[in-house]
Design a protein that fits this description.
The complex is a heterodimer of chains A (about 280) and B (about 260). Chain A has about 280 residues and is mainly alpha-helical. Chain A has one domain: Orthogonal Bundle (ABC transporter involved in vitamin B12 uptake, BtuC). Chain A has twelve helices and no strands. The longest helix of chain A has 30 residues. In chain B, helix 4 runs parallel beside helix 5. The chains are: A mainly alpha (about 280), B alpha/beta (about 260).
């Protein structure tokens, strides 16, 4: 990681002179393809509302971690989000209720629990404000390495189980009849989203993190005719918007998460206008 | 997944290999869905399953597919007499996916029959394999279309091609004719007839379309929780049980 950082410092840009900007740049280069990749299936499996709920559960996990007095409450949040994801998958598969109802139940419970714990004994909520907006400039070298490790694991997961995951979402009954364990496919996928959302929340910000999971895939869908194109549009879109967002936020001094989201929204609008032959 | 070809069960097994369902019963949450269901399904035979909505047709399919706990027995006997789990090809009811899904026929097919992750460029060998499968249903020109852009009949043919890979002993089709226009229906039925003779496998399908039964079905099973009547299309359609279940004088299409 240090090597890449030093490599960047040779760039003839003003921002490249700052150490924190180089780390932020590297973090963006890892985070955006990661979200672009996950985004394809989040949109395909109609889970955009679910990933939003996961962000809320991650906040609750951090509140619990803080309550327990952990130095780094992130791991507590990761564990909580994974439990939340598996539990949600289980309830969704064992009830006739519409998915959005189940998500609503889980999401509101998680948020209430988080606020309850955060404000317990008259505690102030303001210490959690940083989570809502996020700050990519605060990313540390070790965390960039962690994000990169997560990217490698997710790519591995994609190579091993993407086919089954896609079939489970296109046609669960058919997938079932071909021996695919639909429940476990969904549970593992949801857990992967849970880990990624929780780990990157500190830098991207809870309020906009879901846009990174929805917009790249949604934009890709407007143009793609098959899975190869879908992934290419989604990942490249996320990457370009991520870098553009970071640079814009550096020069105008606003939140990076918000800038990236706005670029993604623009990218979505563009693809929407360019889409052909879709109703 | 091991590919077990139907020819494994010996050359001339027509009529001698068969699926035996005996005293089958299924309960969902204490509610009896199926009881005392018994019938035989022979190789090379097309059997149509008819019955009103909620009669248990889909439940029976899912039970044969091994997805539902049941009482009674389901046995499959090959020509040589050895009893092994049959390979079942299943054509589900038309999926309710989003019409805008960026899933091509090639993506869908390759994901189901191969381990190669379909978000990566697809090797020529795999593409040829999918093409060969689609040729069985005369659908090779559909390979690059999106699933959402297919007509009802085209989609059924793709699902049928998928059910034939690996080549099964028994082919089960859930309402294959719903959402298919007249031309597509004729094409699909001709295809089933061709498949039955070419691969010598048993076909079990459910339908609400009684008018065309006698053109393709060797046997018809009238189901309402239990088997009410079994026989040739003419026998079942003229039976008092049929009249009673559907409360009308059937000449054309039945209840929808």
């Amino acid at each position: 990681m240090q090597f890449w950082n030093e490599l960047l410092s040779g760039l003839p840009f003003e921002w490249a002179a700052y150490d924190f900007m180089r780390w932020a740049f590297l973090a963006i280069l890892v985070i955006s393809p990661l979200f672009g990749l996950l985004s394809t299936m989040v949109v395909e499996s109609r889970m955009s509302f679910f990933s939003d709920a996961l962000g809320h559960s991650a906040f609750t996990g951090i509140a619990i971690g803080t309550l327990l007095g952990l130095m780094d409450p992130m791991w507590c949040a990761v564990a909580f989000a994974v439990v939340f994801a598996v539990l949600f998958t289980y309830v969704r598969r064992h009830t006739n209720m519409a998915s959005d109802t189940v998500i609503g139940v889980f999401s509101s419970t998680a948020v209430a629990l988080g606020i309850f714990i955060a404000t317990l004994g008259g505690g102030s909520f303001t210490k959690f404000n940083a989570l809502l907006i996020g700050d990519i400039l605060s990313v540390e070298p070790g965390k960039v390495a962690l994000l990169f490790a997560i990217l490698v694991v997710v790519v591995g997961l994609w190579v091993c189980s993407f086919n089954h995951l896609m079939l489970s979402s296109v046609h669960p009954a058919l997938a079932d009849s071909r021996g695919i364990r639909v429940f476990w496919q969904e549970a593992i996928f949801c857990s992967a989203i849970a880990v990624v959302v929780t780990v990157s929340m500190t830098w991207v910000g809870l309020l906009v993190i879901n846009s990174l999971l929805v917009l790249p895939g949604a934009a890709g869908r407007n143009l793609a005719k098959n899975m190869r194109q879908y992934h290419a549009f989604s990942i490249l879109g996320a990457l370009v918007c991520g870098v553009a967002g970071l640079m814009t936020s550096y020069y105008v001094g606003s939140s990076t998460g918000a800038c990236i989201t706005l670029y993604l929204a623009l990218w979505f609008a563009l693809t929407f206008l360019l889409r052909k032959g879709r109703q | 997944m091991t590919v077990r070809r139907h020819t494994d069960c010996g050359g001339g097994c027509a009529g001698s290999c068969c699926l035996k369902v005996t005293d089958l019963g299924v309960n969902f949450g204490g509610e009896e869905v199926l009881h005392d269901v018994s019938f035989h399904l022979h190789c090379g035979e097309i059997v149509a399953l008819i019955g009103p909505n909620g009669a248990g047709k889909s439940s029976l399919f899912r039970t044969i597919l091994g997805q539902v706990p049941h009482s009674g027995t389901i046995e499959f006997q090959r020509a040589g007499g050895d009893k092994t789990r049959p390979l079942i090809g299943y054509v589900p009811q038309s999926p309710s996916f989003d019409r805008g899904d960026p899933v091509s026929v090639l993506d869908f097919f390759a994901a189901a029959v191969d381990h190669w992750p379909v978000f990566l460029p697809i090797p020529a060998k795999l593409r040829r394999r999918v093409e060969a499968c689609l040729e069985r249903v005369h659908g090779e020109q559909l390979i690059d279309k999106r699933l959402g852009a297919l007509s009802g009949g085209e989609l059924q043919r793709v699902l049928l091609a998928l059910a034939l890979e690996p080549l099964p002993h028994i082919l089960i089709l859930d309402e294959p004719l719903s959402g298919v226009d007249i031309d597509g229906e004729k094409q699909l039925l001709d295809m089933l007839d061709e498949i039955r003779t070419r691969f010598d496998l048993s076909i079990l399908l459910s339908t609400h379309d009684f008018a065309t039964l006698d053109q393709y079905a060797d046997k018809v099973i009238l189901l309402r929780s239990s088997v009410l009547k079994v026989g040739t299309p003419a026998q079942v359609l003229s039976s008092p049980e049929f009249q009673e279940v559907f409360h009308l004088n059937i000449t054309g299409r039945g209840e929808r």
